[in-house]
Amino acid sequence: MRIDIATLFPALCESYLSESIIGRSRESGVVKVRCHNIRDYAGNKHNRVDDKPYGGGTGMVIQPEPVYSCITDVMSTFSSDMNTNPKLIYMSPQGRTLTQELVKELSRERWLVILCGHYEGVDNRVLEELDFDEISVGDYVVTGGELPALILADSVIRLQDGVLPNPSAYTQDSHWEVGVLEHPLYTRPEVWRDRRVPETLLSGHHAEIEKWKIEHSLKNTTSKRKILE
């Protein structure tokens, strides 16, 4: 899989994408991830890419041409290597909500190009011109699309073959089965501040342990999401 991220703050994205599991998967070549600075396509000596919104209002809006130039340059540069067109995603609080089911769907794509908005957002014309799919990480607003883009990239990358040790590393996670949360987790020591690890998990009885995990997964879901009552 290949992921390209178009942003005003590539160093911010790189700092996260270069660490831990994601960083190792990049180093090993399991996934290819690159960050591109939209300001490099500003076309003016001050590298300015924003302006005041028509119709008034506070804040600034990212202009369409720098975004268009950045995205089309990325597409033209790597399309021959990928032998396909990318799926274009704009991180937006107005988009469809990112769920584990959507993550599974996106993980089957060969190439994602993710656009990070900033300030008040991006001129709508470039979103229409390039036919971006708008995706939101929740019904709230943050200062830019970088954090949402990293959430999407991380969630998709971890499902790629070779990133995690085996599929059970993610198929037992919360939300893998729609609407179901994972069971509580424990590690050493067996007793911590008078709180003991459940005896079943220490028993070595695999059938009973699996039964406990299922029961407490459902219990977790019922108590924390209130959807199974």
Protein architecture, described:
By secondary structure, the chain is α/β, with parallel strands linked by helices. The protein has 2 domains: 2-157, Alpha/beta knot; 177-225, tRNA(m1g37)methyltransferase, domain 2 (Trp Operon Repressor, Chain A, Orthogonal Bundle). The chain is 39% helix and 18% strand. It is built from 9 helices and 9 strands. The protein has helices at residues 10-17, 20-27, 64-82, 100-107, 124-130, 146-157, 168-171, 199-202, 206-225; strands at 2-7, 32-37, 50-51, 61-62, 87-97, 111-116, 133-136, 191-192, 195-196. Strands 2-1-6-5-7 form a 5-stranded parallel sheet, sandwiched between helices. β5, α4 (100-107) and β6 form a beta-alpha-beta unit. α1 (10-17) packs parallel to α6 and α4 crosses α6 (146-157). The longest helix is centred in the C-terminal third of the chain and has 20 residues, at 206-225. The two termini are 40 Å apart.
Computed Rg: 21 Å
Summed up, the helix count is: 9
Tell me the domain tally: 2
Average pLDDT reading: 93
Question: Which parts are unreliable, with pLDDT below 50 for 5 consecutive residues or more?
Answer: none
Strand order of the largest sheet: 2-1-6-5-7
Shape, please?
elongated
Helical content stands at 25-40%
CATH secondary-structure class of the largest domain: Alpha Beta
Biggest sheet record: 5 strands, parallel
